[in-house]
Amino acid sequence: MGNVELTNMQLRPEALNALKLPVKVKAGFLGSVKLKVPWSRLGQEPVLVYLDRILILAEPATQVEGSSEDAIQEAKKNKVKELEMKLLDNQHQQKSEMDTSWLGSLVNTIIGNLKLSITNIHIRYEDTESNPGHPFAAGLKLGRLSAVTIDDLGRETFATGGALEHIQKSVELESLAFYFDSDILPWTVNKSWEDLLPSEWNQIFELRSETIKEHNYILEPVTGNAKYSKLQLDDSRSTGQALQNAIINLDNVTLSLSKDGYRDIVKMADNFASFNQRLRYAHYRPSVSIKSNPATWWKYAYKVVTDETKKASGKFSWEHVLKCARLRKTYISLYASLLKSDPNHLVVDDKLVEELDRELDIDVILQWRMLAHKFVEQVSESDLMAEKTKPKSSWWSFGWTGSSKDDSDHRGFTEEDWEQLNKIIGYKEGSDDYLLASEEKDIMQFYMEIHMKHNASRLVSEGQNFLADLSCEGLACKIKTYPEAKVFDLTLGSYKLSSPYGLLAESATASDSLVGIFSYKPFDAQVDWSFVAKASPCYVTYIKESVDQIIGFFKSNSSVSQTLALEAAAAMQMTIDGVKRSAQQQMNRVLKEQTRFLLDLDIAAPKITIPTKFYPDDLHATKLLLDLGNLTVTTEDYWECDSSEEKDLYLQFNLVLSDVSAFLVDGNYHWSETPLDVAQVNNNSFLPVIEKCGIVGKLQQIHLENPLYPSTRLAVRLPSLGFHFSPARYHRLMQVVKIFQEDNAEIGVQPWNQADFEAWLSLLTWKVFVLSLLFSLFYLVNSIGMFS
Predict the structure, then answer these.
(1) Carries keyword Membrane (predicted)?
(2) CB contact at 8 A, 246 and 228
């Protein structure tokens, strides 16, 4: 029986110092840790892990102290050693293959019978320096997280032997939350944190219901549950279920961001960015003050600027290149010889190596050391192969003291003992369901569902009044993995975006407003990957007051430092450039390898309503309604062309935008109503501006560059485009334009004469038939007519 129990422990403040983070532990308390592994009754009793009352109080640690030259080199040496060990461990893991080993079966038994309970977690961060005059605090809270093994009826149980092949686990989550309180003073205690009693820790960290305080939650308390099950291969074949299944249910996920919280988050990010900037050159930073030795600080600034310039230019002199080449040969040969002389040490400490390291960057040192490791590995493999070719001599007959090949003793375990233990942990030599399943392409290996009944995102102004509230219902995500195929499925039931001034956006349907399926190596199509998406219509209302408030929410915090702004801009530009390069490389690879894919997008574009404060009849306000129609994008493998060579050269995309229209309405109108037929209405309250129209396009992209064919070909066809124009429409459209103009000055509204938009007037209509763009050719045929 292996039992570990720790209670009422104080966490050391220097616990996070080795991580070089801009935070440090001010105080910490660990109420209870219990670990129970019943080795003698494994498979008959569960493995217990209990964690209770993990309470941590953190604060900023953004001051960077200077270091001496010896301390700098020692820190550099430790950093190189740590990174070298990580690289070697990664290489070792890549070479090792996962199998159903005895140890793996033992681990599966322990995990299969694991009973986990984590309760009362509260990690709080207090900051008084990031935004002087506005102290704030952030905290992560967890009420309970538990996991137990259950049977088919949902009752707690344990599994052993063959039952381990059919495991069911239940996970419960209670009150996971993250808060951010602005303009709040740090906690104070009457005595030192080390002298606090456990009950006082509970009271300070609000673990009792009567002491709970209200917080401004960024993530409001989340409650949910999950179920995990593991099946045998035969059961998976017969039922069609995956070998591993996971279903996660979250009831309500709500994110909120206040104006003061956003201000403090920006300030904290600015403070951490400055810390990272100082930490990058901490090894140059002098340990004396500027006033006592300004010359040292000038040298520090010169070294930093010089390093930045070298990194930015990427250029080296020819003498520097020759020096590095000679040094590389010396370094690798020296390090390899040291490794060969002492095979038990993976990382070598040597004075001569340390002297060479002083002149080199960490990246260069790691690269050269890994080359030396590779050289020694190849030499060892060659020696091993040569050793195997020699005649084998039997040392065992002379009583060699090493372990024999037929060592069945195994620390006193008999064959019966091992057989019984293997039966308990379910170990069968040479059996691996996942290895067998990988040979059957249609066996589902893993299936996961994530359901969110309701989730929302809010922007909160002063006084806890919301500026915008985006709520979604029925968000679900499904992931299926096969030996080759992968399927990702996303479904959104409905959504709406509201503000104090009214509804800004709303899905037209209550279910399946957005559906997307990405498949890699799909079964139902002879392609490498496919993506199918469908979006239902969305009703959008442009309310200027709400849009201005949302923009002002983020614009109000203009006191962002230049460092943070430059880092954010650089990160954004690098991200954009990286996405562009990656997309271009992926597209070039797809085209060159002639990877086949299927694309089917059916997107119902938003239907936009722009209300005005213009009342032509002093009763009904004018609205502009824009129907952006429906967009479909599909790929096509076969199309009509002059030669079969073109079919092999080009990949074709079909683009269709249909049912685009615009009209003006005086009074109330909702998109769910049936549109009025303009030809049958003799009422100025409904004024068409753009008749229903569409556009058809074909885009062809070449697979491989060919001088005889263009790389991109585009054909566009616009069958008909009709505009309606009149003074009444003009006056109303001008009112719409004024909504988007800045209010630079108070300009009196000039009243319109009722006769300007009332009674019969001439109507000018443009009709455009056939708009075709093919390669560099453009055809336009139009007719202009006028009627009254």
Answers:
(1) yes
(2) yes
| Length of the chain, in residues | 788
Q: Distances in Å between the alpha carbon of 165 and those of 242, 279, 427, 430, 433?
A: 13, 51, 10, 15, 9
**Of residues 600, 588, 587, the one with CA closest to residue 522:** 600
Flag whether pLDDT at 586 surpasses 90: no
The model's pLDDT over 48-82, given as tens digits with 9 standing for 90+, comes to 899 999 999 999 887 766 666 666 677 778 778 88
Q: Which helix (H) or strand (E) holds 368?
A: helix 362-389
- Whole-angstrom CA distances from 231 to 425, 479, 667 are 16, 17, 62
Of the given ranges (285-294, 421-430, 625-634), which has the lowest mean pLDDT?
421-430
Contact yes or no for 720/693 (Cβ under 8 A) = yes
Partners of residue 337 on adjacent β-strands: none
Q: Which amino acid is at 425?
A: I
Query: Residue 717, class by beta-carbon neighbours within 10 Å (0-12 exposed, 13-18 middle, 19+ buried)?
Result: middle
Q: DSSP readout, 429-473?
A: TT--HHHHHTTSTT---EEEEEEEEEEEEEEE-GGG-EEEEEEEE
Written as one letter, the residue type at 704 is L
**What count of Cα atoms within 13 Å lies in the side-chain half-sphere of residue 673?**
8
Residues 472, 493: contact at Cβ < 8 Å? yes
Tokens of 519: 């498949």
CA-nearest of 156, 180, 183 to 170 is: 156
According to DSSP, residue 332 is labeled: H
Rounded distance between C-alpha atoms, residue 117 and residue 109, angstroms? 18
Question: What's the predicted TM-score (pTM) here?
Answer: 0.72
- Rounded to whole angstroms, the Cα distance separating 285 from 302 reads 11
> Do strands 763-774 and 720-725 pair parallel, antiparallel, or not at all (unpaired)?
antiparallel
CA dist 47 and 110 (Å) reads 6
Identify which of 681, 715, 680, 686 has the alpha carbon closest to the alpha carbon of residue 698.
Answer: 715
Contact criterion met (CB below 8 Å) for 456 and 494: no
Side-chain half-sphere exposure of 74, counting CA atoms within 13 A: 5
CB 175 within 8 A of CB 141: yes
- Tell me the C-alpha distance between 545 and 529, whole Å: 44
Report the alpha-carbon distance of residue 160 to residue 756 in Å, rounded.
88
pLDDT, tens digit (0-9, with 9 covering 90-100), for 504-522? 999 999 899 999 999 998 9
CA 399 to CA 395: how far, in whole Å? 7
Chain-centroid distance, C-alpha 741 = 37
Query: Three-class SS of residue 571?
Result: helix
Q: Which residues in 731-758 are b (16+ Cβ under 10 Å) and which e?
A: bbbebbeebeeeeeeeeeeeebeeeebe
Reported in sequence order, the residue ranges of 208-334 that DSSP labels E, i.e. its strands, are 217-230, 244-258
Torsion of CA 694, 695, 696, 699, to 10 degrees: -150
The two tokens of residue 114 are 């694991």
Residue with tokens 């679900």: 476
- 259-280 vs 562-592: helix crossing angle, rounded to 10: 80
* DSSP class per residue in 106-160: HHHHHHHTEEEEEEEEEEEEEESSSSTT--EEEEEEEEEEEEEEB-TTS-B----
Number of continuous H segments (helices) and E segments (strands) in the chain:
15, 25
